[in-house]
TrEMBL record, chain A:
Calponin-homology (CH) domain ranges (all copies): 89-195, 255-362
Pfam name, any one: CH
Sorted UniProt keywords: Actin-binding, Cell adhesion, Cytoplasm, Cytoskeleton, Repeat
Keyword set includes Zinc-finger: no
UniProt name for this protein: Beta-parvin
Name of the gene: LOC108744263
Family listed: Belongs to the parvin family.
One Gene Ontology MF term: actin binding
Matches recorded under PROSITE patterns: CH (PS50021)
Biological processes annotated in GO: actin cytoskeleton organization; cell projection assembly; establishment or maintenance of cell polarity regulating cell shape; substrate adhesion-dependent cell spreading
Subcellular location as annotated: Cytoplasm, Cytoskeleton; Cytoplasm, Myofibril, Sarcomere
Native organism: Agrilus planipennis (Emerald ash borer)
Keyword Cytoplasm set for record: yes
One cellular component (GO) term of this entry: sarcomere
Highest taxon above the source species: Eukaryota
TrEMBL record, chain B:
Ranges of residues in domain Protein kinase: 108-359
Molecular function per GO: ATP binding; protein serine/threonine kinase activity
Family designation: Belongs to the protein kinase superfamily. TKL Ser/Thr protein kinase family.
Domain of life: Eukaryota
SMART domains assigned: ANK (SM00248)
SUPFAM superfamilies: Ankyrin repeat (SSF48403), Protein kinase-like (PK-like) (SSF56112)
Protein name (record): Integrin-linked protein kinase
Biological source species: Agrilus planipennis (Emerald ash borer)
Length: 365, 364
């Protein structure tokens, strides 16, 4: 079977069981036993919380040097309302999920981007995982100076990998001072560079308050910081092929290609009373892709092998991965796309896969 | 005598002798009578043409004869069929498993390619002077794990103890080639005989005989309680022997790593088999549904849903209630039997043990 991506464990939902919700059966047992069961449950819940919760206490005391400014020094922070913006929340969520999925094998769980990433420890692991390199830095550093040094090494490596001028958007100082904006810029650049199998919300704007001390007075202004842009491809980066050219140079021809692919898939899918009108969205859950393989190759796919009505991202990824598996089994070259790209509705990846089928089966009736 | 745990009473060893031969020869009267009471045939001839009755002394022959007549046995001599090259290997189960577990791929002389199916390419050939059929399994990437699973699973297909089961003789496990070997069957599959005109005229009597043969084979298979490798009953997976005995072909069972998620002949499969894993349903009753379709096929000489692709058929059977329709040519008895065997509720379908007596009655 296709290997689903490793997924980090999610924290359990809040324990909401109150006394009133206790079922009839709980009451029937003897009082003593009931009490003991409750004790066990409490200890379990506490243990679970202790494991899942971050190691450091949540609200550290902020020393004065954290908020006292030098003359002409600038300090920026995100406006409080921004955290209520759904797009911004989604961005944070997607990034945290991505990091946790990548680092699931290391048993690292990130809960808060600014609190968990500033010391460079997680960033180091992330870089080692993504770039496949091993960094020569001490594993754990306690002192602040050590943390800074480590962060500097890690960031230097990042900038080298990314190789772009964007690096001005983050620095050792800004990240170590838990500046969320800088951390976000860095993570988005990473996700884009390594083509993380996630779909970032596009054009996220964050209002940032910049405070400057001039002449003993605090002045502030609000600027809109753009974290993400609109992306036309979230698919896997691979050798340039006809589709890249098509997208870049002949958008009019793209329509023709799309149209003939729609005709091709409908000729098959119509046999089982299905119809496709839009390639981007109707193939993303893998159901049509799986059915199409059966129609083209003359077999039936037992319904326990895939989710006929997938409910969440993981089920969709499973479906697409399964369809890919079928393609490989019947001797089609491994698709130049990741299952996640298809589920994320990346048009270019979807077209690549369908075109692959088209060129092999265009003569099948 | 405890051997009667589903052992085939009429099984002959390399001399052509059945248990009854020995019982008669050594004068174990009670045992012999017991055997005949349980269906041992008195008319099977051994290599020298002697039936158990010839071996029996004095009154025993007469007594056995009477019991046999009472039980309605056909007393015509059944001539010995030389299967010694298979028979030899069946004497001791454990010894055989180790003995022919791995057949060296170099010992096979493969001649012509007979068929090419999604499960692999099939060749005709010779192995130790015997005519064989060798199927080279289509495996995309033969990992050591697959090779190990193959080693574990194929011995379960070496079922020599029933006349209506065609066993896998042995296998070559030499990655990347996995080869499944069984005896060459002159007439090919039941599908060929029925639909591709091989010169055999299948009249009602012969069709019933095929049905009975398959039912007996399946009944035996179900008594073994094995699910892996998975055997899908359909006319392509039943072979016809030289003497027109139908035999359930174990070489067509699917290994756990084979054709995952692909069903090429859904027309014979029950709706629940298309929707649920074998572990989540009653596989015996799913086989019974397949048998009903096979009966329909034998009665009509048609391929079920021949005009539609596998995907269409599968979807419609599983979700839209597509079923075979009864044709006027099918006798009323058979129609009734088919309907019983493909009851929509798997729990209400009969077992093969229940179907066999019905078919025997229809045959008369």
């Amino acid at each position: 079977m296709a290997s689903p991506r490793s997924v980090s464990p999610r924290p359990p939902g809040p324990i909401s069981k109150t006394d009133k919700e206790e079922s009839f059966w709980d009451k029937i047992g003897t009082l003593g036993r009931k009490k003991r069961i409750k004790e066990v449950q409490e200890v379990q819940a506490e243990g679970k919380y202790a494991i899942d919760s971050p190691g450091s206490p949540v609200a550290p005391v902020i020393p004065p040097e954290e908020y006292e400014l030098e003359e002409n020094e600038e300090r920026s922070m995100i406006q409080r309302q921004a955290f209520e913006d759904s797009k911004f929340q989604e961005l944070l969520h997607v990034l945290i999920e991505w990091i946790n999925d990548e680092l699931a094998s290391q048993r690292i769980i990130v809960q808060d981007l600014s609190e968990d990433l500033y010391d460079g420890q997680v960033l180091q692991k992330l870089l080692e995982k993504l770039a496949g390199a091993k960094l020569d830095v001490p594993e754990v550093t306690q002192s602040e100076e050590g943390q800074r040094q480590k962060l500097a090494v890690v960031l230097a490596h990042f900038n080298q990998v990314l190789g772009r001028s964007e690096s001005s958007k983050w620095s050792v100082e800004s990240i170590h001072s838990k500046n969320l904006i800088a951390i976000l810029h860095l993570l988005v650049a990473l996700a884009r560079h390594f083509r993380a199998p996630v779909r970032l919300p596009e054009n996220v704007l964050v209002p940032v308050v910049v405070v400057q001390k001039s002449g003993g007075q605090l002045n502030h202004r609000i600027i809109q910081e753009k974290i993400t842009y609109s992306y036309d491809d979230v698919g896997m980066r691979c050798e340039r092929d006809a589709f890249d050219t098509l997208f870049d140079h002949a958008p009019d021809k793209l329509q023709v290609v799309k149209k003939s692919l729609v005709t091709f898939v409908n000729k098959q899918l119509n046999k089982i009373n299905l119809e496709v009108t839009e390639l981007e969205t109707q193939f993303h859950d893998g159901v049509y892709l799986t059915l199409l393989m059966g129609l083209l190759e003359g077999f039936f796919v037992p319904l326990y092998c895939f989710h006929l009505t997938p409910k969440d991202f993981d089920q969709k990824v499973h479906n697409v991965a399964f369809a890919f598996e079928l393609m490989e089994e019947v001797g089609i070259a491994k698709p130049k796309a990741r299952p996640e790209d298809i589920v994320n509705q990346d048009l270019k990846s979807t077209l690549r896969v369908l075109y692959n089928l088209f060129s092999r089966y265009k003569n099948v009736m | 005598m405890l051997l009667r745990q589903k052992a085939d009473l009429n099984f002959a060893n390399e001399h052509g002798n059945t248990p009854l031969h020995y019982a008669c020869f050594w004068g174990y009267n009670e045992i012999a009578e017991d055997l005949v009471h349980h269906g041992a045939l008195v008319s099977i001839a051994n290599k020298d043409g002697d039936t158990p009755l010839d071996k029996a002394k004095g009154n025993l022959a007469k007594a056995l004869h009477d019991i046999a007549v009472e039980a309605g046995q056909d007393l015509k001599k059944i001539t010995f069929k030389d299967q010694s090259w298979i028979g030899l290997k069946t004497r001791s189960r454990d010894a055989t498993l180790s003995r022919h577990k791995g057949i060296n791929i170099k010992d096979l002389q493969l001649r012509e390619k007979v068929a090419s199916t999604p499960s692999g390419d099939t060749y005709r050939g010779i192995w130790q002077k015997n005519e064989i059929i060798a199927k080279i399994l289509a495996v995309r990437n033969c990992t050591s794990r697959i090779s190990r699973d193959f080693n574990e699973e194929f011995p379960k297909l070496r079922i020599f103890s029933h006349p209506n089961i065609l066993p896998v003789i042995g296998c070559c496990n030499s990655p990347p080639n996995l080869v499944v070997i069984n005896q060459y069957m002159h007439w090919g599959s039941l599908y060929t005989v029925l639909h591709e005109g091989s010169g055999v005229v299948v009249d009602t009597a012969l069709a019933l005989r095929f049905a009975l043969d398959v039912a007996r084979g399946m009944s035996f298979l179900h008594s073994l309680e094995r699910t892996i490798p998975e055997y899908h009953l359909n006319s392509r997976h039943v072979m016809i022997d030289e003497d027109l005995t139908a035999r359930v072909n174990m070489a067509d069972a699917k290994f756990s790593f084979q054709e995952k998620g692909r069903i090429y002949y859904p027309a014979w499969m029950s709706p629940e088999a298309l929707q649920k894993k074998i572990s989540d349903r009653n596989w015996e009753s799913s086989d019974m549904w397949s048998f009903a379709i096979l009966l329909w096929e034998l009665a009509t000489r048609e391929v079920p849903f021949a005009d539609q692709s596998a995907m269409e058929v599968g979807m419609k059977i599983a979700l839209e209630g597509l079923r075979v329709t009864m044709k006027p040519g099918i006798s009323a008895h058979l129609q009734k039997l088919i309907r019983i065997c493909m009851n929509e509720d798997p729990g209400k379908r009969p077992t093969f043990d229940m179907v066999i007596p019905i078919l025997e009655k229809m045959k008369r």
